[in-house]
Fold this protein.
Amino acid sequence: MSQATAVQGEKISLLRVLGPAHIWALGVGIVLVGEYMGWNFAVGKGGAFAALIACWFAGLLYTCVAMIDSEVTSTVAAAGGQYAQAKHIVGPVMAFNVGLYLVFAYTMLEAANAITLGYLVQTVGSMAGFENVHDKPFIVLTIMFLAWLNYRGVYTTLTFNLILTATAFVAIIILFSFSKPWSNDMLRHSELLTGLPYGFIGVVAALHFGLWYYLGIEGTCQAAEEVRSPARSLPLGTMAGMITLLLAATMTWYVCTGLMPWEYLGQAVTPLFDAARLTGSQPLMVLLFVGTMFSTMASANGCINDASRAWFSMGRDRYLPTWFGAVHPKNRTPFRSIVFLVPVALIFAYFAPLDQVITFSILSGLLGYTYMSFQVIMFRKKWPLDVIKRGYIHPMHPIPAIVLLTLCSVTYFAVFLGYGTQLVAMMLFFAIASIWFHFHRYRYVRRGDQFSMQWPRPVGY
């Protein structure tokens, strides 16, 4: 078990207390908010059918991600997830970049969740007659409360996530059932579905926000060092989470496109809550308000957990100042990393527009997925199946890696169509960060101390 130094100089470690249900709650909890908001911007890019194609396209992409992650993470069972994988399989510069991808993807997603929650409270407050309700205090309170919860302990944090996530998922099922999809009494697909208003290019453009249906499921890997049985819990929780999200995404698209014109749906901030309002059912509207609130809180909560683990792991390995690599002596959490990332999330949540924050998160995640397609091929080549024991072996290798790389390439083009400037700016930022690490920070890294896996020498080395 990996260890970190406490304030008193004691050697302490993160606690192995989590089971498969917590992994499901972490992965689905981070992502399910994508069904409550964000995915519908794909409708605005290319129409309802384009959003459905993007939904299935992204589903295939993330199924590949889940399979690849399940194999590598059940073998590299260390905090930091894909960062820990990169330092063992590829090398320090790639590991540093992957760590940054993870931190920014989750921190930006956390900020987007806080923005949505604040907007929802402001909207409902106005509906209830409180015209002077402002969203900013709720944004700050949400991030601060969830950071405090993460500070207090991982078991409580993810048990809380399990309750929030399960409630939000049940709310989607209830809305789907209430809309009577087996009849035409409420849903008006024949009137509202209008084909592809922008043609095939609209389908490509929709792929950008199609990722939002599933963005973050790979976050289950961040709990690898705090799971009782990584070889069992990580693959089971991750794959069960992917199945849950595929069902939720399809139900969400079907209900929303049958109740709202695509022109409105494509720019709505809280589409599922709006769908509940259109049904005319007050109890259903309250339920979807609660579901939206819970999904945003569960996602932000999981994002704080995952971003702090990645930052903590980089500090522990001296990729960042070792100050970040401390574990709280009582709560057994990476408390300094949790506290440090709070103002970063607050700045983006307070000042940046929602679509820009979502795009920042999507691009950071996309860079990580691109790396994964190369990583798993290197992993199988360096350590074949008969060399080291794996908790899970993904099938049909290397087809999932090739499919993942192909889908990522198409999605880069989709992002470039609408947010080319942001794409170039992010690539430049990560290039500068890599140069800084190579010429300044790398000299502090102790290469011999950072490997926690007792593996034989790679084949061919």
User: Anything to note?
Assistant: Residues 399-441 form the longest helix (43 residues). The first strand starts at residue 4 and ends at 5.
